[in-house]
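Summary of Year 1 activities. Much of the first year was spent building the evaluation harness for sequence design. The harness presents a backbone, in tokenized form, and records the residue chosen at every position. We chose the following record to illustrate the format because it has been used consistently in internal testing since the harness was completed.
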């Protein structure tokens, strides 16, 4: 961390700042560059609130020389994190497509969708059982019964499954769930993240609609700091002024995250757009941007879906999308995992 002081800094304020810093357990070194004093800080800087340093009038700027997300940082850990679930590999040049309905509705529904998305090349089945809904009057999910039905579809197809957790008390229901999703609304539920950090389950962490990329990485850090290194990031759109889409897919976050972190990066064209008509093209854009996978909502009867019917693509639209995914991934150096 480097603090650049103003060239006309008042010496009394400079002394106050140095005293304030010396009360912290860090080393301080001063140097002069282009007529201004520069203070270099070393040591355990995590406990220092740097926004307070800006309150000293003599400070011109503060430059971070290290990432605050130390375990998630590619600078600290250059090699890609590769997650293995049985025979399946996530990251490390593999492209995985997670597909399935927003909500598990019945055994027949999840099994029919599972078989069709598998036939088209999806490698992981999704299905929400514990649903975080904006309205308390909307369908809240089949809860543990939904997880049971998802497990039936897993047994039928052999596909690994992912489902969302909204409360740590539900963790015992996730024993046979291969990947636990932390949804956008819970991205900063720090107590939930800490608890999941104590498990060794792969976690699919979705970006909050109003969170910066750095906040997203700091949330991943909560899980990693607990010792669970199996974290997959998922960009799912952020809230902007645009109202023709449900959210705005921040496509730039994909290549940026790939640079900043070694964790696998997925993107969700369904929740980021809210409209089935543009989901396939957005999914292709995610491949082109360098994602390690996409998560797409697929429903066999979208107009009667219990949740997110507007953005759910049909099994046949999914099949067409997968044909294109399989064509473009090799050009980008990725292997589609089926
Ligand atoms: C979901 O995946 O069904 C979901 C609720 O996603 P998000 O948290 O991104 O809104
Ligand atoms: Mn959904």
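For this record, the design step produced the sequence shown next.
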């Amino acid at each position: 961390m480097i603090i650049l002081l103003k060239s006309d800094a008042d010496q009394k304020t400079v002394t106050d700042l140095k005293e304030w810093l010396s009360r912290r357990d860090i080393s301080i070194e001063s140097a002069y560059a282009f007529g201004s004093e520069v203070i270099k800080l070393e040591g355990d800087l995590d406990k220092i609130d740097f926004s307070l340093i800006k309150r000293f009038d003599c400070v011109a700027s503060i430059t971070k020389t290290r990432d605050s997300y130390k375990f998630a940082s590619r600078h600290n850990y250059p090699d890609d994190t590769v997650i293995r679930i049985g025979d399946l590999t996530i990251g490390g040049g593999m492209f995985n497509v997670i597909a399935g309905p927003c909500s598990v509705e019945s055994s027949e529904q999840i099994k029919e969708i599972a078989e069709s998305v598998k036939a088209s090349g999806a490698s992981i089945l999704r299905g929400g059982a514990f649903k975080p809904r904006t309205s308390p009057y909307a369908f809240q999910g089949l809860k543990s019964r939904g997880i049971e039905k998802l497990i039936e579809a897993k047994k039928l197809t052999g596909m690994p499954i992912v489902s969302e957790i909204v409360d740590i008390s539900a963790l015992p229901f996730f024993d046979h769930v291969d990947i636990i999703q932390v949804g956008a609304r819970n991205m900063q539920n720090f107590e939930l993240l800490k608890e999941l950090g104590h498990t060794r389950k792969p976690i699919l962490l979705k970006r909050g609609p109003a969170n910066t990329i750095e906040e997203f990485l700091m949330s991943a850090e909560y899980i990693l700091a607990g010792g669970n290194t199996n974290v997959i990031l998922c960009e799912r759109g952020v809230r902007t002024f645009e109202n023709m889409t449900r959210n705005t897919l921040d496509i730039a976050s994909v290549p940026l995250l790939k640079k900043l972190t070694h964790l696998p990066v997925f993107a969700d064209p369904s929740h980021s757009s809210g409209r089935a008509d543009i989901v396939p093209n957005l999914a292709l854009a995610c491949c082109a941007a360098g994602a390690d996978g996409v998560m797409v909502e697929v429903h066999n009867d979208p107009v009667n879906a219990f949740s997110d019917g507007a953005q759910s693509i049909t099994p046949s639209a999914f099949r067409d999308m997968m044909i294109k995914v399989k064509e473009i991934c090799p050009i980008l150096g990725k292997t589609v995992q089926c």
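The two ends are 45 Å apart (CA to CA). Quantitative recovery figures across the full test set are reported in Table 2.
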